[in-house]
Amino acid sequence: MTLPQRKHRSLSQGVVEQISDTIRQGALKPGDKLPTESSLMAQHGVSRTVVREAITHLQAAGLVQTRHGIGTFVIERAQAGLGPESENIVTLRDVLAVLELRIGVETETAGLAASRRSQEQADELAAALREMQQAMAEGRPAVEADKRFHLLIAQSTGNRYFVDILTRLGNAFIPRARLNTPVLDEDKPAGFLERVSREHDDIYRAIERRDPEAARAAMRTHLSNSRERLVEAQRRLESTMN
Fold first, then answer.
1. Which of 170, 157, 150, 123 lies closest to 226 in space, CA to CA?
2. What is the DSSP letter of 33?
3. Which of 62, 24, 57, 25 is nearest to 40 (CA)?
4. Which helix (DSSP H) or strand (DSSP E) does residue 78 occupy?
5. Do 8-74 and 86-241 show the same overall fold?
6. Which candidate, 154, 225, 167, 153, places its Cα nearest to that of 194?
7. Which residues of 88-113 are buried (b: 16+ CB within 10 A; e: fewer)?
8. Nearest CA to 56 among 179, 136, 171, 138?
């Protein structure tokens, strides 16, 4: 049965719910491999983009892990102790603290990804970047593509612990997915989106040409700029409360 055409977000959420239910009911157990993307597309009547968004959600929830070139597997739920809990990251100050953590972690993931990425991983990163830029150009939410872009970089390191840290953070590692205030919205016109798009493009190009130092510099610039944008937003928020 083909699902009615709706927004990708609601379609992917439907796929997430069905796979999550299958895992919780025990039909899929830790160590079991999920069906291929093509099988999931046929099973749920959705596009490849929707399937990939759903997998990203499942990764962020700590239910699955993708092993590049092998497949996506059900995993044991993340145990406490590896990074902060997503549900505890609720304030703007919390998100700023997470960005400081990300500057340290993701600067290195970008450098390692530039050294270790496969051509297929570079192609997937390019696809996520195009999807994010298209969503921005069309005024649609780009959060899911943004999350996938950063997770793909972590996966390209070949070190699963980088992926574990980002997935444990869930939506908290993309600030605009976590915060929704009028003060932050002031910083979202075309100029803001153009800067964010250009920053991601710089990261991709450095990784694509296998330049670790440029990749580290581009990632640090992007995350530092994100932090500065939020610091300014925090100042505006505090000024409205005084």
1. 150
2. B
3. 57
4. none
5. no
6. 225
7. ebeebeebbebbeebbebbbbbbbbb
8. 171
- 37/49 Cα distance (integer angstroms): 10
Residue 80: strand, helix, or coil: coil
| Cross-strand pairs, 64 | 74
The answer to whether 62 touches 168, Cβ cutoff 8 Å, is yes
Residuewise pLDDT in 10s, the chain (242 residues): 333 444 455 688 788 888 988 887 888 999 999 999 999 999 999 999 999 988 988 887 778 988 888 999 998 865 544 455 544 444 567 778 888 889 999 999 999 999 999 999 999 999 999 999 999 888 888 888 898 999 999 999 999 889 888 887 765 556 554 444 444 444 455 677 888 899 999 999 999 999 999 999 999 999 999 888 888 876 776 666 55
Instruction: Classify 8-74 by CATH class.
Output: mainly alpha
Q: What is the CATH topology of the domain spanning 86-241?
A: Four Helix Bundle (Hemerythrin (Met), subunit A) (1.20.120)
Q: How many CB atoms lie within 10 A of CB 60?
A: 25
Contacts of 145 (CB under 8 A, 6+ apart): 128, 129, 131, 132, 135
Buried b (16+ CB within 10 A) or exposed e, 197-225: bebbebbbebbbeebbebbbbbbbebbee
Q: Are 27 and 66 in contact (CB under 8 A)?
A: no
Pairing of strands 71-74, 64-67: antiparallel
Q: Where are the domains of the chain?
A: 8-74, 86-241
